[in-house]
Amino acid sequence: MAYSGLTARFSTQQSQDQFIRDPSLTQPIHKESKSKTVPIPQEVILAELPVSEESIKVLQNEDISLSVNPRGTSITSCSISSYDTLLPQVNIGLLIEWQGVDFKIYDITNGISMGYDDKDKGFEIRKNYRLTGDNHIIEMEVEFISHSDTTRYVDYGLNIGSIDKDVFKKNPIDQRYIELSISLPNKTLRNNFLRFNPKAVDDQIQWTGIRDRYFCTIVRPMEEADKIIKSSNAGITSYILQIPSFELQPGQRIKHLYLLYLGPQKQELIKNIGSNAEEIVNFGFFDSLSHIFLGIFNFLYGVTKNWGVTLIIFSIVVFVVMSPLSIKSFSSMKRMQEVQPIIEELKVKYKDSPQKMHKEVMELYREKKINPIGGCLPLFLQMPIFITLYQTLMRFIDLKGAHFLWIKDLSEPDRLFVFDKSLPVVGNEFNLLPVIMIVTMLVQQKLTGAKGQQGASAQQQKMMGLFMAVFFGIIFYHMPSGLVLYWSVNSILMLVFQMRMFGAKTK
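Above: the chain's sequence. Below: its structure in C-alpha cell form.
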C-alpha cells in the first residue's frame, strides 16, 4: 500500500475504547488562518521520563515491536524484529508540552490510543498509534478536542527522536553513520546527528529521518511544519518538529496525521511512505554510482543466491572492466623497471649536477616513450570506484547475517577463531581475510620491485611496500568481512595479473 496520497483523517469517540472516522469533521490548517502568534522557544529541554514496566504498552507485527510509554505518549524503543536489532533513537513521537503527563490508555483495533484532558488549556489531547497494511509503516494521530466556550490557540512540538551520547561510544564504526536528514521541497539536508544545524531548515518540511548504518526512522507530517528545534540535555540530543500555532474553536476537534517508517534502509520499502522519502538512502558524493552497484549486486544475487559468491563475481567483473587501465599501469611500471639500471648510472654520473641528471633522465623517458606518472594515473582513476564500493558495502544491509564459508556474518569481521585473551591491535579474534590481503600485497610488492632495483632507493621501496601492506591490513582488520572479501579477491586477481606481466621469478 502506498501512502503518498493519504490526507488527514478525523474521528470522534463513541466510547472509551472505540473510535470511528468522521470526514465531516475535517478542519484543514492553512498558513492564512487567523492564529495568535506564539513564540517558538530557542531551546527545548526534554526531561528524563521515568519508565514503569507496568505502564509500557507493546505494539507489534511480524517486523517491528514498539514500546509505547503513556507518559508523554512516546515510542520509548523500537525493535526491528526481522533483523533482531534495537534502534538507537528513543522517545519518538513524544509530545513536548505534555512530556511529564500520564495519559490514559484505551484499546483500539490494531493500535494504542491515549488521552489526557488538559483543563488548564481548555482542550483534550488524544494520541493514537495504528498498525497499517505495511509492516514498517505506522500511523500516528494527534487530536485536539475543545472543551472550552472560547477560542484556544494551540501549538506543540513532536520529538523526532533522541539519542544518548553513550550510543556513539559503543561501536565507533557503526555509530559514525548516525545522521539526521530533513527533506524540503527543493533540497534534502543531511548531517551527522550531533552536528545538524536546525537553522538550515528554511522551508516546508516534507519528512524528517534519523538513520544509522543499516536502519532508519522517518516521520512524515501530513500537516504544515517548517521548524526544527534542537535539544541537548544531560548528554541526550533530540530534534523536535515544531507545529505552527492554530485556532481551536469552541466544540471543534482537529486531528493531525503523521506517517512513521521504522525499518531497514531499503528503498523499495521506504518509498511506500511517499514524498520521495527513499532519498534518505544516500551514499555520499558517488551516490548515483552506488545505486548502480546495488542494482548489479541484486542481479547477481538473484543468480547465485549467496552474497559471498555474489561479491566474488562482482569483484571479478570489476577487475575485468578495469583491466585496460591495469594493463596500461603495469606496462608503464614494467618499462620503468627496464630503464632503472640506466637511471642509476645517470645518478652516479651526474651526482654533482642534479639539473643535468634530471635533464638526462627526462630525455631517456622521451626516447623510450615512458610516461613517469603513467603507472599512477590509472590507479587514481580507479579511486572513485573503490570509495564508492567502500561506502556501499559498509551500509549494505543485505550482508547483515549473510553466511559464506566460515564467515557467519558478512557485515562483521570474518572471525576464523576467537582467542581467550585480547591481544594488541587484533583484539581477541583472528580474522583470516585481512591476513590474506597482507600476504598478497607483499608478494605484489616483491614482483614489481624484482628487476633493476639496487641501493638505498630499492631498500626504501621495500620498506614502503611492507609498511603499506601492514597499514592496510590493520585498517581492514576489523572491517566487515564482505568488504574485505571483495578487496581480497581483487588483490588475488591483481597478483595473478602481475605474475603474467612481470614473470613469476623474483629476487
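The chain is about 35% helix and 30% strand.
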